[in-house]
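re: ur question from earlier - yeah i can do the single chain one, its not a big deal. heres the input i used so u can compare w yours
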Amino acid sequence: MQPNLEPIILSRPGTMIAHKSLKIIVTFTLALALLPFNAFAKADPQAEESKEFNPTDMIMHHIGDSHGWHFFGEGDSSFTLPLPVILFTDNGMVTFMSSEFHHDTEGQYVVEKDGMRFVNYHEDIYKLDAGAESVEFDEEHNVLNASKPWDFSITKNVAAMLLTVVLMLIFFFGLAGHHKKNKKAPAGFNNILETLVLFVRDEIARPQIGEKKYMKFMPFLLTVFFFIWITNLLGLLPGAANVTGNIAVTVSLGLFTLALILINGNRDFWQHTLWMPGIPTFVKPILAVVEVLGLIIKPVALMIRLFANITAGHIIILSLIGLIFILESAGVAGISVPFALFITILELLVAFLQAFIFTMLSALFIGMAVAEHEHH
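and the output i got, formated as tokens:
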């Protein structure tokens, strides 16, 4: 992406770009916000009458990861995309599709492979001991008759991230191909992409990192910005994965920023972090501890902010819809659904805002690490 940035960046003034892009974004926003909430409906209400509605289980099920990509419905009548289960045990690697569990997440259905028996208990896969029929726990919830193999399965979140990567490759290869073929300004969706690339460069990279060194970090900043933005938007679709609402994903993104800070930090940065000039010697060790802790806290703040904001938005929407089933009144829908729709529209703004904040703070921290100081 880096070699092709300058041709994109040297395009015409942005008034017409912003006007056209705003129209497209508004149209897309309204279309996405008006999507039906059919992901929350039961496929077979009579089969579920005997079960008491548990809002906590419903919310955790929708925001959590899973071994199959469930879209709607329950049990055998549900529409679920099976995903590969990849396990490493003491006896070697075992693979099969998640559909072999037959939608069971209570640890009752046993899958036999290569002489081993596996169950799916609340999306944790266990290898049963010989003679065991299901997972058993003691009073402290320790497993008594099973063990956890190493799980490298393609879960719903992993599949959603791969989908995001594919979309990003399609989008930006298309944009790069347009600029290779002609010098005309792109139209349509490529117009939006170019506007956002210019936005990341002019509003994030240049001000925070500096004119001399910003180009070195543009590929990372663009990748992080579009990855977070696209996954956030996809996460608002019914049945979609809650990728950035998974703490493991945000931790990984924060660690990438930390690695860039540590690798690219110059002499001035480390001197001001570990042994500050112009400060009494007896104070320097105390400040060094504070600075090192601050160095670690920076990416931690990045990952918690992203995780908490995205997860909170999903929980609010699901809670509003859940009020209909908690109060068992269709009349509540007249209040909860409009409020849920409002929060969904707000989440479209949050999806962009969180991508912007994460990218901007990453650029700020990197800029602090590579800044050159004049000593007199």
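The beta strands are 68-72, 79-82, 84-89, 92-97, 111-113, 116-121, 124-128, 146-147, 150-151. not sure if urs matches, ping me
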